[in-house]
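Please annotate this fold before class:
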Amino acid sequence: MKADDEYIEFTGDIQRGVISRRQLLSAGMTDRGLGYRTRHDGDWQRILPGVYLMATGEPTSDQLIAAALLYAGEDSLVTGLAALRYQGIRCRDSEIV
């Protein structure tokens, strides 16, 4: 089965460039394909177990929040200043995610 690249890109876009292994596998990506993308000089990087940043470089605060939500599962939520920032409400910065 060929991976649904449009679905993968769309999902990554709405999740701020972050995607889970479960989402990738459901879109038809194989473990081998994921390994290729996340190899040492690959286009993607693992930022949490089973959660990937679809880019190189340092993840943004929003990407770290999106990764934490994916890692924690569908019943998870973000609160406080991190939640406000994630929703686009301007507030002071914090190093805590």
User: Anything to note?
Assistant: DSSP finds five helices and three strands in the chain.
